[in-house]
Amino acid sequence: MDASETPTGTAAETPTRVESWTEWDPLRHVIVGRADDGHIPPPEPALDAKVPEDSDMRGQWGRRPQETIDRANALLDGFADLLRKRGVRVDRPVPVDFSQAVTTPDFHTPSQFGCMPPRDVLLTVGREILEATMSYRCRWFEYLCYRPLMQRYWEEDPGFRHEAAPKPRLTDADYHPDYLSDTIGEAKRLEWAAARHFVTTEEEPLFDAADVLRFGRDLVVQHGFTTNRKGIEWLRRHFPDHRVHAVNFPGDPYPIHIDATFSPMRPGLILNNPQRRLPDEQRKLFERNGWEIVDAAPPAHQTPPPLCYSSVWLSMNVLVLDPKTVCVEESEVYQADQLDRLGFEVVPVALRDAYAFGGGLHCCTADVRREGELQDYFPAG
């Protein structure tokens, strides 16, 4: 199924309406990524800092093996079918040729990445879908995979606003050179994370959409490798009717995206990675508004899959379907058990063999519509 095809079943009968204010309201329309032509990108400053020093990806790049692409696509297709059967309309991106180089007046990189994780690129806030700046050079043109869908939504929904953040230049001035070493060591990385010294500089606004969590009138944004302070300030100015809160997690030596660290499940409940706890000062916003922050269950795996950027904490990268229902990767039995005990219906989904293409269940989706109106979940400020 490509972007021009209409899903069958109940979800297909729902007219297009772009609107989503939270991470947990009932999901009605979503984009699910694809693994087609997925690449391990060539070395570049943003990427090198984010690949763990002991990763099997160090020193290699190019198109991923076809059998892994086929397996990942089978899992993503299965996930899309599961969502359709639950009444969710599902759209898919249109992959481009990711073997093409990216060349601008400021940089050149020999190939691209893929379109498995739309959550990285697209941020839906209310009636708007915003294309993020991105901070990888290899992901400069990734938004093109979603433009056919954006055009379709524009034609079908007269209230839809399609926005794109200013494209950054991504010169060497955007990156701290001390992150280019292969032998920094975890202790130094943790020291830098605590000091909020990340690979990205403050040369220009940078942010990935997957660093933003939506709590109605409040947006919680992680300051880390892919989002800098200027990026957070840009979001604050772009969404003047929202309150934008910067957070960081000193226990994370590779702070890439927030959704394997801090996951709101329903009003009043958040899962927090126990190795990357929110600092006490930043917890006050949630505590004075009656939110409970619970340590997530441990991962079921000790290592990530082969050729995977992500950590084992994709275990908590779940997709909330509504405040009582959540999709969890089927092998993550500890996370599933915890959420069951917290009162959720847990829907198991096989996705682990697709992790290497860009992440877990939250990463491989982007909300188009969730039921629910704009609300204030932090009335105490």
From TrEMBL:
GO terms for molecular function: glycine amidinotransferase activity. Residues 1-20, 34-61 are annotated as: Disordered. One of its GO terms (biological process) is creatine biosynthetic process. It comes from the Bacteria. Keywords: Transferase. Residues 1-15 have a biased composition (Low complexity). The active site is at 208, 257, 363 (amidino-cysteine intermediate). InterPro entries: AmidinoTrfase (IPR033195). Gene3D superfamilies: L-arginine/glycine Amidinotransferase, Chain A (3.75.10.10). The keyword Transferase applies. Belongs to the amidinotransferase family. This is Glycine amidinotransferase. The lineage of its organism: Bacteria, Pseudomonadati, Pseudomonadota, Alphaproteobacteria, Rhodobacterales.
